Amino acid sequence: MQVDDTDRRILRQVQADPEAPASELAERAGVTPATFARRLERMREGGVVKAIREQVDWRALGYEVEVSLRVTLDKTEPRAFDEFIIAARAVPEVISIGTFLGRVDARLLVIARDMSDYQRIYREYILSLPHMTDIEALMQVATIKDAQSVPL
Amino acid sequence: MELDDIDRHLIRALCEDATQSAGALGREMGLSQPATWRRIKRLKELGIFGPRRVDLDLEGLGFGVTVFLGIKLATKGRVSLEDFERAVRAIPEVQTVQHVLGLFDYRLRVVAQDLPDFERVLRRRIMTLPGVGNVEANVLLSEERRPGPI
Question: How many CB atoms lie under 10 A from the CB of residue A88?
Answer without folding.
Answer: 22
